[in-house]
């Protein structure tokens, strides 16, 4: 079996990267606010320029090739910057200096060692350092993309990061080849470009999937979440309820006392503020205990707690304390709560909700 030569592989990578860059540009032209496409298009087109520069730069020019390696490191940062921009976060971070610097230092290191007479310059040493610098550059960027904050929200982002990490075996083989005297001065380029033929497509297709997943997530939230409080609505409750239909789980029904009077005296904006505060505090506290919060409508809320949770009465006490410090007219309103435990013969979550409602109204009657 004969491998394609480096020039052929380079041309294939340039054509593939150009095609994806064109796609990113077209998508950006349709929505100028989608700046993540700009970062991804730059990554593709700049990579094409880097591949061409490797053939055009004068051999032996340390300055020229150091600049090329710096730009190559930048192309590995741009996909991450685009993903961050898409999530509404700051695109440029301090750590992004590391991928660029490591790519440059990997190329410069043999010359520096030779100038200090610490090691003789050789093609093997140059290959090892080039591969090591690029491996660090790709590894850092790929790791942040695959496992950094926000990565769990989309499969596309994790897949894109894993595609970048997929280049590492090629760089490791390049380093091993230098130690074992594998012939060929372009071993680093050969293995990297071979990796391109599979991973470049995976990387860019995964990037394209990220905004699609984000839109799907927003549509799902719009269908299943209450727009005012962010809690599950009735449809969302049906999606999560099955996880709590287990003996020992608990449902807490919550109702704002004299909610109509709050609206009448302070206005509907104040009433909305109360509902937002209740939904926020109940949802946050429920999630810390492995539970969920839902708004059934009006001022009626539910908290679903798993069997492994703390004592439900203790949870209710914690929620009362949090609501007192919520700041949303906290001294002017209060809530009543009722709870019901899921029993072994319960087959529908609605049966448990009915018992929790009954407990709630018994609590309101005692106030």
From TrEMBL:
Residues 247-367 form the GGDEF domain. One of its GO terms (molecular function) is diguanylate cyclase activity. The chain crosses the membrane at residues 12-30, 37-57, 63-86, 98-119, 125-147, 159-181, 187-210. GO terms for cellular component: plasma membrane. Its EC number is 2.7.7.65. PROSITE patterns: GGDEF. It catalyses: 2 GTP = 3',3'-c-di-GMP + 2 diphosphate. Pfam families: GGDEF (PF00990). The keyword Transmembrane helix applies. CDD domains: GGDEF (cd01949). One of its GO terms (biological process) is cell adhesion involved in single-species biofilm formation. It comes from the Bacteria. It is an enzyme of class 2 (transferase). Keywords: Membrane, Transmembrane, Transmembrane helix. PANTHER family: DIGUANYLATE CYCLASE DGCM-RELATED, REGULATORY COMPONENTS OF SENSORY TRANSDUCTION SYSTEM. This is diguanylate cyclase. It comes from Novosphingobium pentaromativorans.
């Amino acid at each position: 079996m004969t491998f394609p030569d480096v020039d052929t592989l380079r041309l294939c990578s340039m054509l593939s990267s150009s095609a994806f860059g064109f796609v990113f540009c077209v998508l950006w032209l349709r929505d100028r606010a989608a700046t993540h496409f700009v970062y991804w298009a730059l990554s593709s087109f700049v990579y094409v320029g880097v591949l061409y520069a490797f053939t055009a730069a004068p051999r032996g020019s340390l300055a020229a090739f150091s600049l090329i390696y710096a730009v190559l490191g930048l192309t590995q940062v741009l996909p991450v910057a685009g993903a961050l921009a898409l999530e509404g976060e700051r695109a440029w971070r301090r750590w992004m200096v590391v991928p660029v610097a490591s790519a440059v230092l990997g190329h410069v290191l043999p010359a520096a060692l030779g100038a200090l007479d610490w090691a003789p310059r050789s093609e093997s040493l140059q290959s090892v350092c080039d591969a090591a610098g690029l491996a660090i550059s790709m590894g850092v960027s790929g790791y942040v993309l695959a496992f950094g904050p926000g990565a769990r929200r989309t499969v596309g982002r994790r897949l894109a990061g894993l595609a970048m990490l997929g280049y590492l075996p090629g760089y490791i083989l390049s380093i091993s080849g230098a130690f074992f005297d594998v012939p060929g001065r372009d071993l680093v380029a050969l293995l990297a470009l071979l990796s391109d033929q599979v991973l470049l497509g995976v990387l860019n297709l995964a990037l394209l999937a990220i905004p699609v997943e984000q839109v799907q997530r927003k549509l799902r939230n719009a269908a299943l979440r209450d727009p005012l409080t962010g809690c599950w609505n009735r449809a969302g409750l049906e999606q999560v309820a099955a996880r709590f239909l287990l003996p020992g789980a608990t449902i807490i029904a919550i109702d704002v006392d004299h909610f109509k009077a709050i609206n009448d005296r302070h206005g509907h904006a104040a009433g909305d503020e109360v509902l937002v505060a209740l939904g926020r505090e109940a949802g946050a506290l429920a999630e810390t205990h492995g539970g969920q919060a839902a708004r059934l409508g009006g001022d009626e809320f539910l908290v679903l707690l798993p069997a492994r949770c703390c004592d439900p009465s203790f949870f209710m006490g914690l929620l009362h304390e949090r609501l007192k410090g919520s700041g949303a007219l906290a001294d002017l309103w209060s809530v009543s709560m009722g709870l019901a435990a899921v029993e072994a013969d319960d087959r529908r979550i609605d049966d448990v909700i009915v018992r929790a409602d009954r407990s709630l109204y018994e609590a309101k009657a005692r106030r």
